[in-house]
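Weekly sync notes, structure subgroup
Attendees: PM, AL, DS (notes)

Item 1: joint prediction request from the bench team. They want all two components modeled as one assembly rather than separately. Inputs as received:
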Amino acid sequence: MNRAPAKNWDIEDLGEGRLALNMGPSHPAMHGIVRLLVTLEGERVVSADPEIGYLHRGFEKTCENVTWNQCIPYTDRLNYVSPFINNAGFALAVEKLLGVEPPARCQYIRVLMSEISRVTDHLTCIGASAMELGAFTVYFYLINAREAMYRLGDLACGARVTPAYARVGGLANDLPPGFAAEAAAAFKAVRENLADADRLLTRNRIFHDRLRGTGTLTKEDAVAMSVTGPALRAAGMPFDVRKASPYLVYDRFDFDVPVGSNGDNYDRYLVRMEEIRQSLRIAEQALAQLPGGPVNHPSYAVILPPKAETHGCIEALMAHFKLTVDGVKPPAGEVYQAVEGANGELGFYLVSDGTGRPWRVRVRPPSLPLTAALPAMVKGGYIADVVATFGQINMIGGELER
Amino acid sequence: MTGTYLTDAVKERFPEDVLGTHAFRGDDTVVIRKEALPAVAAFLKDQLGFDMLMDLTAVDYLPREPRFELVCHLYSTGRNVRLRLKCPVPAGDASVASLTPLWPGAGWFEREAWDMFGLDFKGHPDLRRLLMYESFEGHPLRKDYPIDRHQPRRDDGAGRTDR
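Output from the run, pasted for the record:
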């Protein structure tokens, strides 16, 4: 059954002096592909209707037809600007379903890589939104910093953007030797570039005027519309999954959750700037405390045995075969595991029927409630503020549309 | 099956409507009759302080009957507590009351569940497809939707929202 399509405006009765405008799907300020149907009265936005789905590729359906570990490369493509967080979140959810916990070293590395990812995401968001408002120089400073962080990911697992680093019960490999020194150099580069961007943006009159008081969302509205992450914290709600329900080893680190007070674009920008500094703090603590030992779970029922054992011991060979062909088999049941993604709560709801393939993989994308709240944020504002607001909600098509 | 404090509280208030509870891996879960969804959801929001609808989705359990299950994940910002609320939905009457009056954030989640599973949300103000296009036939996350079925978008303009 198909319903008659609803519209948010009608060309016949738009109203006197009103104008309907299509922003996107191919528009320089509509990151990736999204279409925003806006109705204008003069320069003021009367209503807006985001049309999404251009990047839908059936992630959840695909996952139902592969083994649990084969889902991990697909999770890279959810939020492709912070892929380690998706990797770690998905692996964590499957481990919760299995009832196992990876070794401490693995958990520290996952925290470290997640924070590196959060930094790359925030840098991209601030850089891109500044560029859309005309501050092109800042974009290069921040993308420079992002590249330093991407190189760390490359060093750890051999890929910049699509790492597929986590495994159920462990990691693809341990960190390479000399990683700590490389990381220290990269963090220094990020801090320098961030300081430059801070000097160029934070007290910049034009930037301030474009962001202050635009795209405002009150705390109550943000909670009612399921908004999480920097946008919720900018509205004054100190909700961060890393603090609220600590996962991995986040309870062992000292870090602050920045909170705004106005819920506008400027507060979102400030929250992100501070979160980059806090993420670097966590990453440095994780590196300093990094324990030794294995990175993978000891059980052959969870993760592939080391190659040397596969080639030299029949039990390991059998386990390798079973895990490759059938996959790891969690007990029948359902779990929900939330991690703090760069844009808010990233949740994985998994249903297992006891076989090697998921019955259902549901991703709770942080971008979805944010994009749903976009009409409420831009309503009544100027058309030019749509660009500022859209930049600050940092919609990522990969996770929004899966 | 022993319940937790939270699931017992819901069970005590709605003894007729709670079909079961569990806390597998520490996730408090309450399964209710779908007719009771608005009342239970309002109780959870107004009395127990679950002010945030974190997620809403569905699962297709074909060939089991009732075939579908609506799954809501609630969060209380005041008390930092989570609860999963589920209700079975039969294939013959794949409809359920919309939660948009309680949580406006349910709007897009329900549009997606309609799009992917064909669940009809009664009372939803604007139930359109979210990810697929309007002329798309079927609901792709149903278990009987073949994974290799191709459905190129028709170019006759059917279902376009801009005309």
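Discussion: Chain A touches chain B through 51 residues (CB under 8 Å).
Action: AL to compare against the crosslinking data before next sync.
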